[in-house]
Amino acid sequence: MSTALPQSIEDTLALLNSAGYVADRSLATTLFLALKMGRPLFLEGEVGVGKTEIAKVLSASLGRRLVRLQCYEGLDVSSAVYEWNYSRQMIEIRLAEAAGEINRDKLSTDIFAKEFLIERPLLQALRADDQGPPVLLIDELDRTDEPFEAYLLEILSDYQISIPEIGTIKAAQPPIVIITSNRTREIHDALKRRCLYHWVDYPSAERELKIVAAKLPGINSQLSNELVAFVQRLRQQDLFKLPGVAETLDWADSLTQLDKVALDGDAIDNTLGALLKYQDDIAKIRGSEAALLLEQVKSEVSELEAMSR
Amino acid sequence: MSSSATTPNISTVDNEGRMAENILYFARLLRSAGIPVGPGRVLDAITAVKIMGIGQREDFYWCMFSLFVNREDQRELFDQAFHIFWRNPRMMERMMSAMLPTIRVEREQELEGMTRRLADAMGKSDLAGIEPQSDEEIEFDTSFTYSSQEVLQQIDFETMSVEELSQAKRAIARLRLPIMEVPTRRFQRSATGRRVDMRASLLATLRASDSIPLKFKRPQRRHPPLLILCDISGSMNRYSRMFLHFMHAISNDRDRIQAFVFGTRLSNITRHLRHRDVDVALDKVAESVNDWSGGTRIGACLKEFNNRWSRRVLGQGAITLIISDGLDRDNAQGLSQQMERLTKSTRRLIWLNPLLRYEKFEPRAKGIKAMLPYVDDFRSSHNLQSLIDLSEVLSQQQPRRNQHLSKEIA
Question: For residue B215, what are the domain limits?
């Protein structure tokens, strides 16, 4: 089942929300423009703020195939674009020889035919299927090196790939391209220039609450109020690695597993590992600092509840 | 200019010769001012002018521009050089009428606004009678034969003279740092490689008569990223200009260099240093950094680096170079924790300390004591020789840290 592309910012927002992604308007605007203009969407942001999720949600809600290219250092053409199936090619050569085939030109066209081609994500993404062009997710682009980035530049400008033995393969309809980066390295301006840029920020308390409610439907409302307020305050602290949304969800999940209905000092100290991933940070927050934050959170939440009543 | 109507035919051998000569001089001027202009380009320029003829000054400008400039950041220098060399309507007229045997630029107040380097370049060449106006006093320092303008709080990069610059440049030319190369996960064809390159082998099979001729590949090698953290506080004053040149030279020599300076706060100057022209680059650095020659807060700056930048610039096995005297105003507060984090996120941590030139140097300052346990290499950096020696450390594959550790444990 395939859905048509959204025709307005409101549509885009509704589309994302319907698939369980609590988006803010700035993201919806950028995404709408990217879809409308047929340009790649370049998402940058801290780890765990839901960049990859956007592509997944988009593919699910539009009913398109998701083609994912996970980047890593040393990623090359044979694992990103295509590779020949060497063992099959060799068997083919042996068979031809056994059959007394001597025409080498014919053999060369035979073994470098499409049936021996193993398609990797970028090539797969150029093929539209019944549902329309797929969503191509190029994840963590900052992990690759500059040469690959330059290669990508070529593909993203005219959505075609040339294979020396076969020729050029061009996408009939360009895929929806989502690129994410954690900024472990700056991406070259030339690539950024071709994309629409969006910085995915930590969510506001209100939005984070919605996210928790959407992902963990059974959660106690007092607990979720308190833990979101706690995480929001934690992000104001001077830490090496601030907790992302993914960490909030992990934490909420672990507190639920422990049957907590409200935050308390012990629970925080024992489960802090779900939230903070560096020993220095944990040592800094655990104990008195956490107790102080908890106190602030409690008074804030009770105030809010009093107001809502 | 306006008198182009009266332009005489310049295609006579004699005039053409003079025109060519002037272009030659112009190219020489550009070269000594720092724009690399090869002889081939000069020949092209002469041909181009012959084809185009001399009409509008503007046409002539863009003709020269198109041939002699090939980077955006050379524009400024070219513009100045052009207007001074092919100066003024009269000059152009005279040139066009080819009455001028050689170009004489008179000493004039006009020179005031021009870059020091250009002024010196003009002074050096035969074409002009300008002497570089050395109105600033050049102090000589016993420890360093360098004009010590840095003693002044306000550093004026604009007035850097060609003599100083060429000294630094000559040194820096020798300083082409051969950073060691490490294998990547990419492959290239190689007859001596140890892995079979299947694609090449199969292609070769089609040409071969019977067997499959194996082709090989080996991992490509590449130097890891290099990060430079340079102290620009008051105590480092005498050296920081030198190191800025050093950083500029290596930033332009190779890719994957990240440069930061710190005093009381941290500034990323990587982008500024990418300008080919050292004047423009250092100007931009001077503009963006405003804690020159102040105090040092090494711990706070390293903390900012670790929190904000380390994950963005220390990927892919980077080497870190810290240039600092280790004298910390904050009494080494939190310095050792930050150093520990830094050393854990980098392949090698090399500390260049100009104080090391004193024979009786002892790490007594708190800052130095806090930093020293975490560095892989501690080296002097007070003169050119010590910078040259740096290449020894960078060019060789040093033992891995854990090997070193395991030896210690054993």
Answer: 182-222
